[in-house]
Amino acid sequence: MKTKSKRYGYVRVSSRDQNEARQIKALLKIGIERKNIYVDKISGVNFDRPEYIRLIKKMRKGDVLFIKSIDRLGRDYQEILVQWKFLTHHKKIDIVVLDMPLLDTRKEKDLLGTFISDLVLQVLAYGAEMERQFSKERQREGIEVARENGVKFGRPRKTTKEMFCRYYEQLKIGSITRDELMEKLDISKSTYYRCYNEWIKKDKVA
Question: Of these four, 11, 21, 40, 129, which has the most CB atoms within 10 Å of its CB?
Answer without folding.
Answer: 11
